[in-house]
Amino acid sequence: MIRTEGLKMEFRVGFLRKRVVALKGLTMEVKKGEVFGFLGPNGAGKTTTLKILMGLAHPTGGAAWLMGRPLSDSSVKRKIGFLPEQPYFYDYLTAAEFMDLSGRLFGMRNKERAARAGELLDMVGLSHAKNLQLRKFSKGMQQRIGIAQALINDPELVVLDEPMSGLDPVGRKQVRDIILGLKDNGKTIFFSTHILPDVEVICDRVGILVRGELRAMGTVGELISGTRVKSVEMTFKDVSGENLSRLENMASGTVTRGSETTATFNDPEAAGKAKRLVFDSGGEIISLIPHKSSLEDLFMEEVGKKK
Amino acid sequence: MKVYAIAINTFKEVIRDKIFYSLVFFALLLLGASVLLSTLTLGERSKIIEDLSLSGIEIFGVIISIFVGIGLVNKELEKKTIYIIISKPIKRWQFLLGKYLGLSLVLLSYVAVMTACYMFFLYMYTNKLPWQTLMAVLLIYVELLVVTASAVLFSTFSTPTLSASYALALYVIGHMTGDLRGLAAKTGQAGARAVLNFIYYFLPNLEDFNIKARTVHAMPIPLDYLLMSISYGLMYVMAILSLSVLIFQRRNFK
């Protein structure tokens, strides 16, 4: 659906025309029907990549294809929906007028436009606000109308730039559900974000972009597999005296509340020994939780790495 | 269809803007003032009203053309609303043309409303309807189309403040190109003459659209003069818009 090869982008900024490199040869692919999360810290070049793909900026090097066609072929835009980062809309339009304008730009017929707009406003929970001017919309409502306009043409490929930023937990869940719903309908979704827990839940594959370079790409499982268990947290009760102080020595940290103690062990072996000791001393284990590396750890590691 | 969608949207944008109404309000105030001033004159009161009103319609029209015109593209870039539009299957020239036509439509409504008010005032005070001044209004509208196109052109590559200065400068110089030509004829230096002549032919000759005094004093305006001026204006608009599209096409949106 999306393919880029050696995509480069350079800007000249300021009076001295200082060179700023935003993308250093990005090569990646998004396959049909998948949810692809494009991760990276602020300023990594995510938005620049999306702008190039959407024809808002011209790359200074490399090439990209959408649905097998080069970017210069704007006819593919018919099958694409796009939500920019922190979207601003025409303040003076009402939600219904804005949806109508979006539909017109796709050359949709009057009836089709009205039906589709109603359907989408319903889906994003804004039917009640359809005659309200957009300047009266809250941030969450703006994000939702943004998603609705991106879907007006029933696109095959949906590109979302930071769809969850600035939303409260309820709003984030709604956006997540919308994305998963689109995936169930066979759409391809490509979105950029820096909200990692959402990515683990909804993405089939992710790419991590740092300072204009793609540092990692693959399924969430692939990327964090092979990473060892980082620590084990064990909660137990009814252990006292010498046995308790031995356990405390083995653990990297303990918290005691009444007769219950929660101990954290840095390696699984120590946790195994501790478990036996609790049994032998007649105590009871309440919970035993291994903590594995998460996408967040991988992300922080990649961001922290020097070139 | 897509150009129409953008044009209608632009029309709504300007019409729902408070700045537009305040400009229209002041323009109407000037019309009212012209009636007041006419009472201070000896002789033909209607000439004062006609002259002041036509000038008022032109001046405020130019202000709207320039200040709304430069905002057409700049506001879209600044507020990033352009991302939503350009990512849809619309060509950049369609977007630019739609924006231009939208404002032209606003200016048309503005000129129509102002002219109706002016005719009404005049009829109330003099019991006369000076139909020949409508020709002056027509050419004022063509002039506004040229000024708007130049404002759009400047705003495709410059900041709002600079664009406004350029467009205003073009308007002022456009009314003095006759003097430039006179200067060229008088100067002895061949180089200077070539430069002055180039500027004369290159910049729009806005004085061509100024037949206010002639219509007010009921001097005859040949039809071919009228048609030539209109064609000249429209050709100039097309040239400026084509240049704007060429620049806009290559632009990266930040």
Word description of this protein:
The complex is a heterodimer of chains A (about 300) and B (about 250). In chain A, the strands form 3 sheets. Chain A has a 6-stranded mixed beta sheet, with helices on both faces. Chain A is elongated and about 80 Å long. Chain A folds into 2 domains: about 1-225, P-loop containing nucleotide triphosphate hydrolases (Rossmann fold, 3-Layer(aba) Sandwich); about 230-295, Alpha-Beta Plaits, CATH 3.30.70. Chain A has 10 helices and 14 strands. Chain A has helices spanning about 45-55, 95-105, 110-125, 140-150, 170-185, 195-200, 220-225, 240-250, 270-280, 295-305, and strands spanning about 1-15, 20-30, 35-40, 60-65, 70, 80-85, 155-160, 190-195, 205-210, 215-220, 230-235, 255, 260-265, 285-290. The longest helix of chain A has 16 residues, at about 170-185. Chain A is an alpha/beta fold and about 300 residues long. Chain B has one domain. The mean pLDDT of chain B is about 90. Chain B has about 250 residues and is mainly alpha-helical. Chain B contains 11 helices and no strands. Chain B is globular and about 60 Å long. Chain B has helices at about 1-15, 20-40, 45-80, 80-85, 90-125, 135-155, 160-175, 175-185, 190-200, 210-215, 225-250. The interface of A and B includes residues 51 and 88 of A.
The strands making up the biggest β-sheet of chain A line up spatially as 6-7-8-3-9-10
Tally the beta strands of chain B.
Answer: 0
End-to-end Cα distance of chain B, whole Å, is 28 Å
Count of all domains of chain A: 2
**Helical amount among residues of chain B, as a percent range?**
over 70%
Instruction: Extract low-pLDDT stretches of chain B.
Output: none
Morphology call of chain B: globular
Low-confidence stretches of chain A: none
The biggest sheet of chain B amounts to: none
Oligomer: heterodimer
Strand content of chain B: under 5%
Class of secondary structure makeup of chain B: mainly alpha
Radius of gyration of chain B (CA) equals 20 Å
